[in-house]
Amino acid sequence: MVRAGLSPERLTLAGAELADEAGFDQVTLSALARRFDVKPTSLYAHVKNSHELRTRIALFALEELADRVADAVAGRAGKDALTAFANAYRDYARAHPGRYEAARYRLDPRTAAASAGVRHAQMTRAILRGYDLAEPDQTHAVRMLGSVFHGYASLEAAGAFDHTDVAAQQSWAWTLDCLDTALRSRSTP
């Protein structure tokens, strides 16, 4: 029997909220069942297992992040687009740490290919068109930007920048300036 009010979508959203509150690694069917005051077995009518729940949360987070980034970069180009993309990414990681972690959950190739992760790559490549990078530099740049944004957001979330008087925002702006300079230096003449 399906419990009234429960659905895969509602469980996904509740799981995303739990991830933000307690960490993505704390999202389990048992924890979610406690949230709804039901037995864990009641959830199996809506999701097969914890892996499916985590995958649903990852897909939700990827979609949510892609929507925010798309809104931020709309109508922008060059450094302005790069900065808007980067800020939307960092802001999402700060506002939704558990969802951000979920967006890094390893998906099987078929699920990944159908996810909003593809939109992330497309938006990154769209930003890079403003830098006129030829292949393989464009692919290198996509990987560099993802690595820098993720690394910065992860280190900031872990408190790695709390030991100095220089504000993390100042370092972020400096980092974006350096990325813009590096990308411009690789532009095709």
UniProtKB/TrEMBL annotation:
The UniProt keyword set, sorted, is: DNA-binding, Transcription, Transcription regulation
For the HTH tetR-type domain, which residue ranges apply? 5-65
Q: Which domain of life is it from?
A: Bacteria
Q: Which residues form the DNA-binding region?
A: 28-47
Q: Which PROSITE patterns match?
A: HTH_TETR_2
Query: What InterPro entries does the record tag this protein with?
Result: Homeodomain-like_sf, HTH_TetR, MT1864/Rv1816-like_C, Tet_transcr_reg_TetR-rel_C_sf
Q: Does the keyword DNA-binding apply?
A: yes
Please give the name of this protein. TetR/AcrR family transcriptional regulator
Organism of this sequence: Sphaerisporangium dianthi
